[in-house]
Amino acid sequence: MKSCSVCGRKAIYFQRHSNRHLCRKHFIYDFERRVKYAVKRYNMIEKDDRIAIALSGGKDSVALAFALKKLYGKRRDVDFLAITIDEGIAGYRPPTVKIAKKITSELEMEHIIVSFREEIGMELDEMVKKGDKKPCTYCGVFRKYLLNRTARENDATKLATGHNLDDETQTILLNFVQADIERLARLVPQRVQENLVLRIKPFREVYEKEVLLYCILNDIEVEMGECPYAHFPVRAAIRDFLYEFENKYPGRKYSIMRSFEALMDCFKTNFPQKELNKCRICGEPTPKDVCQACVLRMELGLI
Ligand code: SF4
Ligand SMILES: [Zn+2]
Ligand SMILES: [Zn+2]
User: Fold this and answer.
1) Which end of the chain has the lower number of beta carbons within 10 A, N or C?
2) What is the phi-psi region of residue 65: left when phi exceeds 0, alpha when psi lies from -120 to 50, beta otherwise?
3) pLDDT reported for residue 296
4) How many domains does the chain have?
């Protein structure tokens, strides 16, 4: 193995986009530097913030809880809590809930677990059998709904998710090739709206493989199981294309991110954020009269 481009010690990672070899210490330093850069650039963490971390227990969210606590945990004006949503996916969710409990106890972080069964009235596995929608439709709508509601009810000012550079660039390209520019515009950091907790993505500048390496180097337990309902053929094609492209031309995922950022003002002008109403049934924020979660609950006979 080569030596670290910064200090000359034994390197453990070759960072292709910067053409540098990094030792353990300088990999961690560089990783955390890019997290701090993203946080600062988008004012993700501000004075008196109470940050709720969406903690599924997968590698990204577990690494996020660890990194945020390490980098900002000593600040007296900032506070953290973690929220885990248990959708009720047999075989897949229980091990990650266990990991979420373990990491929050190690980090001494407040942890709230909310389940579809208790809050919505049915587990995802049952919804899939009973309803006619795709599993990810139920899962995505109810998870977002519960994350926002739980964060707000627990006085959180922001909701942090573990989306990394790979996730973000895949979504950018996916929406672009599907000509869904309105959805693409939703990736622009949003302005504050009543009852909607502002979302932040502190890992938007780090590669997925770097998140995994960060976990390994910090002895953070990870669970690599895949959801049995995961089936995204178009996204998988985009992911594979980006992987090959990045391999051949390192740093291009950053180029995609920068191009997107350069277009942000244009998106803001052409697709202004919609004013939100209160759902007629549950009172949660929605651009319509009844929120999507209530529509699905009605379809499933839950209300
Ligand atoms: S892949 Fe699984 S966890 Fe992800 S949204 Fe779909 S059902 Fe939910
Ligand atoms: Zn070094
Ligand atoms: Zn509603």
Assistant:
1) N
2) alpha
3) 98
4) 1
Pick the residue whose CA is nearest to atom 7 on ligand 1: 136
- On whether residue 24 sits in a domain, the answer given is no
pLDDT score, position 192:
83
- Residue 158, helix vs strand vs coil: strand
Name which of 60, 25, 212 is nearest 68 in CA terms. Answer: 60
CATH number at residue 110: 3.40.50.620
- Cα 155 to Cα 146: distance, rounded to the nearest angstrom: 14
Q: Residue 229: CB within 6 Å of ligand 1?
A: yes
> Which residue pairs, CB below 8 angstroms and at least 24 apart, start in 137-145?
137/296, 138/296, 139/87, 139/229, 141/292, 141/293, 141/296, 142/87, 142/116, 142/293, 142/296, 143/85, 143/87, 145/284, 145/291, 145/292, 145/293
Classified as helix, coil or strand, 267 is helix
Chain position carrying tokens 């929120």: 291
User: Whose CA is closest to atom 6 on ligand 1?
Assistant: 136
Is residue 37 one of the residues assigned to a domain?
no
Q: What pTM did the predictor assign?
A: 0.97
- Other beta carbons within 10 angstroms of residue 40's beta carbon come to 10
Question: In the chain, which stretches have pLDDT less than 50?
Answer: none
pLDDT on residue 101: 98
Identify the pLDDT of residue 56. Answer: 98
The CA 289 to ligand 3 mean position distance, Å, reads: 9
Which ranges of the chain does DSSP label H, i.e. alpha helix?
24-41, 59-72, 93-107, 116-119, 124-130, 135-153, 165-177, 181-185, 208-217, 233-248, 252-262, 264-270, 292-299
Look at residue 193 in the predicted model and tell me its pLDDT: 87
Domain range for 86 = 42-299
